[in-house]
Each structure stands twice: as structure tokens, then as C-alpha cells.
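Quick review question:
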């Protein structure tokens, strides 16, 4: 059924289809009997809560950042069975992102290219929406509440030397309403952002946020999301720093600027799309290799959330075998449809 619907939707602009589909789902969830029917249709079975980051997750499968940038579809995503959702990337001030078109499909390769550029409504608007969500869905410790991660970044116009202040603002505004934070310095779509993955830049940002936990009383886990394009030397620096400052976790990985491997048709489409981050099936092996390297380098002491090319239960098993504690989907959701969590969450460990 979804394959037919996907064929129709793929005739239209990807970004418009994204909002159209989620808004239609929102309307459906507003009808009580239909919401219950859909929830029963998509609720994963055969899963158990898992303890990670000091939090009780309903299961291991979540949704990566970038899908629900403004925390606008939490009820809908919970209905689809996600154990956690990472909202954002959120910046202190609202920004429009890069010029459109900025999201492209490579269906032959089960991939996407995006150069969104942290388009979001800003920390105040997102915090207000999260506050409303929390009033209806207070956090619990029984493993039945969907976990909310806050993926935060800097505004495009903020100089790198002042980037830590943008992360400071986002932390203060979102901390009362999220369960953990992810520092995004690895998107390829904000000029100069990936320069912040260098060790000393990371130290400034991460230790500042760790200090805010004591200052604000919000003792939330802080994770770092990294690119799949780092050298082993850069990964060693990240592992060393993570151990030194006792970082709570890592997310591996973001999208890649590489364009291999792609089919001939995919290469043509990628050329037409231009710059941006590649996600989906082509990045799976690369992301898993980075994740495995870090897990071995850290000897499993720091939890890793795996993201990149997850479509099937076999992909989940690969990530978990490489040392991941949790697994996130994004592009796989687009290609596999709303039943993806139910199909893959029951992968037994």
C-alpha cells in the first residue's frame, strides 16, 4: 500500500510532501477512533524498555534530528511507535535556512540529499511547543513515555568563536522540556560549522554546557553528533576528549559530503542537486564503520546512538553489533513508510 502512495508522492517536491504528509497525519490523529486505529496498526510489538543515558527508553528505535525540526509533530510520531524523537536542529533565533529547492530524492539509491541549513522557528517557539507537550505528557521512568532529545546548533550568522553562546541559549531555553541534548557541529549545510569538530572548539562548547547543568539544575545527558567524513586521527581526538570530560554519549553519524557509492542515475541526480549532505542507504557502511571505530576506541564506556542508512531489522542488527545502544532512522522512514518502527523494532538482541 505504501509503495503505491510513495510512487504518487515522489512526483512532488520533497519538502512540500514532508509537511503535507505530516499535516494529514495530524488531522487523522485529531479523530479519536482513527487515532486509536492507527496507533494499534503501527505500535511495535515484542519490544522491551532499555536503559541508556540514565533514561528508560520504550525501545531502541528512534527518529533522527531534522525530521521534526520544531517539535510540531510529537503526537503523530509517538502514534507511529517511535521510542524517542530528536527534535531540531534548534538555533537561538529563527532562521529560514538555505534557498529552495534544498531537499532532493535519489530513489535509485534509496537516498536523499539535503542542504536545509538549520531552518527552524527558533528556541523560544520550540520551547513553548515542548512546554505544551510536557503538560500533556509528563516524563516518567516506566519506559512507556517517548523520550525527547533536543538537537541544538548555532545560527548561521554567529561567528565560530562565539558559537558556545548559541548552544548556551538553546540549553537554557529547552532544558526544562527535553530528556537529553545533542550538540550538532557536523551538519555540512552551515558554512564553517564542521570546523567546530576540532578538539579545542569542542572542548569549549561541551565543557560550557556541562557547567550549565550545575548552574541551572538541569542535569541532562549531553551528546555530540559527528560527521561520517572524519579521519581516524580526528575520531581519536573526539574519543580522547569524550573520555577526558566524561561526555555522556555520541551520535554517529550525520550526513556525508561524499557522493560514493551511488548508481549512475544517482550520480546524475546528485550532480543536479549540487551541494548538501547525503543520507540513506549509501551512507550506511560508512556510518557503521565510524560507529564501530569509536566503540572500540572507547571500549564501550560511552553510549553511541547509531544513525545512517537504517532501513531494515538487519540494518538495526548491524548497528547494535557494532556497539550502538540506540538506533535512529530518517531517510529509511521516507522510503519504508510509517510502519518502519513496527517492522524493525522487534529485532531481538
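Suggested answer, residue by residue:
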Amino acid at each position: 500500500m505504501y509503495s503505491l502512495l510513495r510512487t504518487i508522492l515522489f512526483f512532488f517536491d520533497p519538502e512540500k510532501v514532508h509537511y503535507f504528509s505530516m499535516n494529514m497525519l495530524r488531522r487523522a490523529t485529531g479523530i479519536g477512533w482513527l487515532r486509536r486505529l492507527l496507533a494499534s496498526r503501527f505500535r511495535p510489538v515484542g519490544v522491551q524498555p532499555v536503559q541508556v543515558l540514565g533514561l528508560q527508553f520504550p525501545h531502541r528505535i528512534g527518529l533522527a534530528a531534522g525530521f521534526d525540526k520544531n517539535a510540531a509533530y510529537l503526537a503523530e510520531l509517538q502514534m507511529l511507535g517511535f521510542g524517542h524523537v530528536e527534535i531540531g536542529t534548534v538555533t537561538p533565533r529563527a532562521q529560514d535556512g538555505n534557498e529552495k529547492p534544498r531537499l532532493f530524492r535519489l530513489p535509485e539509491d534509496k537516498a536523499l540529499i539535503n542542504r536545509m541549513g538549520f531552518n527552524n522557528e527558533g528556541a523560544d517557539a520550540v520551547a513553548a511547543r515542548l512546554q505544551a507537550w510536557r503538560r500533556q505528557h509528563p516524563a516518567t521512568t516506566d519506559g512507556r513515555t517517548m523520550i525527547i532529545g533536543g538537537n541544538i546548533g548555532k545560527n548561521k550568522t554567529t561567528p565560530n568563536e562565539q558559537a558556545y553562546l548559541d548552544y548556551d541559549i538553546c540549553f537554557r531555553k529547552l532544558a526544562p522540556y527535553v530528556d537529553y541534548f545533542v550538540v550538532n557541529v557536523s551538519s555540512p549545510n552551515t558554512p564553517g560549522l564542521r570546523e567546530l569538530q576540532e578538539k579545542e572548539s569542542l572542548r569549549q562548547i561541551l565543557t560550557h554546557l556541562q557547567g550549565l547543568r550545575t548552574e541551572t539544575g538541569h542535569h541532562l545527558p549531553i551528546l555530540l553528533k559527528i560527521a561520517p567524513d572524519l579521519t581516524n586521527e580526528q575520531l581519536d581526538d573526539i574519543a580522547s576528549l569524550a573520555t577526558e570530560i566524561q561526555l555522556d554519549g555520541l551520535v554517529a553519524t550525520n550526513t556525508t559530503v561524499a557522493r560514493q557509492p551511488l548508481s549512475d542515475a544517482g550520480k546524475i541526480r546528485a550532480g543536479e542537486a549540487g551541494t548538501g549532505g547525503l543520507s540513506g542507504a549509501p551512507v550506511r557502511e560508512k556510518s557503521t564503520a565510524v560507529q564501530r571505530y569509536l566503540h572500540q576506541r572507547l571500549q564501550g564506556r560511552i553510549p553511541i546512538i547509531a544513525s545512517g542508512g537504517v532501513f531494515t531489522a538487519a540494518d538495526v542488527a548491524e548497528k547494535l553489533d557494532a556497539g550502538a545502544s540506540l538506533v535512529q532512522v530518517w531517510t529509511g522512514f521516507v522510503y519504508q513508510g510509517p510502519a518502519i518502527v513496527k517492522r524493525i523494532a522487534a529485532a531481538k538482541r
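Why it works: The chain has one domain: 2-344. DSSP finds 13 helices and 13 strands in the chain.
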